[in-house]
Amino acid sequence: MIRYQSFFALMLLAFLPTSCTRGKGVKSVEKAAYGSALVEVSGSKQAASVGSALDQPLIVQVNDDKSTAAANVAVHFAGPAEVRFNPSVALSDSSGQASTTVSMGNSPGRYRIEPWIQDRNGKKIGLPMDEIALGYEQVLGREIAKRYCNRCHDQESTAERVSNYDNLKTKPHALSDGDTLNKMTDDELVSIIAHGGPALNRSAEMPAYGYTLSKAEIQAVLSFMRAVSDPPYQSKGVVYAQK
Amino acid sequence: MICHRGQGGATSVEEAHNSTDAWEEPLLPARYLEASCGQCHLNALAGTPKLNQGRTILAAYGCSRCHNITQPDGSKVVATDDPPSLTQIAEKTTREWIYAWIKNPQGYSSTATMPNFQLSDDDARDISAFLIAQSTQPATGQKSAASTDAKPTVADAATLYGESFCASCHAVQNAAGTLVGGNFGPELTRIGTKARHEWMLRWLHNPADYDLETRMPHYRFTQAQIEALAGFLEQKTDPDFLANVHLSAATPDQVAHGQKLVTEYGCASCHDIKGVKKPENFAPDLSRVGSRQLAQILFKPGLEHNLPAYIAAKVSEPRSFGPSLKMPVPNLSPAQVEAATIALLAQTDRAYSLPASLRVPAIRQTSYEPAGQAGKLIRDLRCFSCHQINGRGGDMAPDLTSEGSSVQGPWLESFLRNPNTLRPALIRRMPKFNLSDAEVKTLSSYIMTVYQTPEFDQDSGSEIVDFASVERGRQLFYSKYACQSCHIADFKTDKGYIGPALAEVGSRLTSTWILHYLKDPQKLRPGTLEPDQHISDEDARDLTAFLSTLKAKKLEARR
Predict the structure, then answer these.
(1) Model ipTM?
(2) Domain A2-134 has CATH 3.30.950.10
């Protein structure tokens, strides 16, 4: 498998210079295809199950030194060996944007990927960002969250699901709200899911799910929340003794 | 071996996990892992969203109309798409439309499940010629008696389209290019370019008159409403769609060639077509495709040398394996291709060899048929398209199996007359069928008598409640259980709209149902979102007392 991937990369690299020159030839009025800045349009901090492609493509924009969009610049998508990009090199279009589909690696966790371009002097300009691969339990948690939690905890409405966020007196935290949730322990979060808001002296608008969801299901939701937490959740690990 | 596959035991990590081109069964890549669950679990598992989606795709995109897919328990994957009969196609649309459609179905509707056969111009010309030739022809010269007086305006028609909740099933592209509406029926953005006027009138009058098998209900529209709706829909045109279609009259040779092509491409696997027999075993059997030997597979250059990669490529770009292949290109996104691949990888020899006791069978639709006059109405209104009753029907709307135990008769009658009241935030809602009084009576009395739950006795909960109990129930509703975060008891103060509004629940539900439902929601409505809060008998009684006082003024006045 690895052999084939490097084969593809070689093919693309071999093909790339010709397509660049062709691009230049057609649009001779345009300046040489270099960019001096790379900015994200959309697609970072997404989550997909291990090995799978992210739902939305990763889109970045190349700007030149006047901060206007630069077309025909080769954007290289790089990351850990397990992460696959389709395509792994893309030329920015007339609005300066390049897009790729990102497939996650085979172990759960965060993957630091880095699209990069070369500027006029051949210097590498990178744009590091994180994507999240979900393990089995976390995927299970995501499905449960979609069904039971997101209707209130997700502010965004879709055509299929109107968000109830605005109708609540006490505004729920997004499940990825690390600033708040990272300060809470696993036990506290399990307790608030199982016994409802009043268990931690919070709003009764958060109902108790302890008789609707099993212990394993609540654990799965917790695991999912920790996985997508932003900023990332740092587990304290096992604490053997307090100072 | 069962879950991760692989070559079996090894003495080094590389030997166990890596792969070479020669390996028959390397470890299953992580993204396809759910396929292994599907070997034993033929039902939908909560933990395997992609496998479930894949199995739905195999049915919803009609894969099983050409490919036989038998599950290890002996049941077959049954297609759930709705390809129309083509024996009357000339009455419905023009040859030009057929030509443009079969060349690129997704050009007409981006969500169309009809796959792209990548036909040449000549082949599309001949197939369209044959399809028109084999069809019954539209009646010519016969003008429908147009009632010129009191014609409703276009604005009225748009309101009627909204009130009839056409959008529950049909989508239309808005100005921003996004589809708004359901995907149960065909997209209507360009319907005016497709449908003939006479056909449209006939269809809106009663769809079953044209297509007996249709999933669309029989709305009881008046003639004026039908004409207004038809006029409204016919304005939804796209002149670009047929701009480049110029067909001269068909020659007999073209018709004959079209018939040959229709036979060769297996069109009759999905559609009824006069003069072409439904082919049998048209495409390879996929029942055990997850165990196909690599030696039997022709890989195309550049493709990874393993089974998952092969199946995914076959699903996403079948024609790339050779110019003479007939399999059309299905309209699937990369994520859907991955899901379909997972569902196919689950079809292994091992799944068949496992003892039946280890198998969790799939839940299949029953063949339940309601009886008598009401049964006839239920079929005419196509209730099963959206509602499930006794294990048969769709999942778009609530299960009605115990509807008679939960609602009150007068409310049900008024709801059938005008369903425009429950859950105002939903896009998919029950349409107004314009039923006659007699029809309403027939339906409601059948539902009230027959669809009873075995969980409780209807007369068991009618105890006398006092004012203190009601007041305590109100307190519980607003403070202890904070029901108002999801339900509206009073439209002036409450805003939650996840659950149905309860402002008139005292006239809608029986107090016995409310009491039992509060104590164990999942028991009465399996899968409901309402959390089971283990409400005590006392709290449940008081909450019921409070909710029962929330009456509908209109209904009470009629009593």
Answers:
(1) 0.83
(2) no
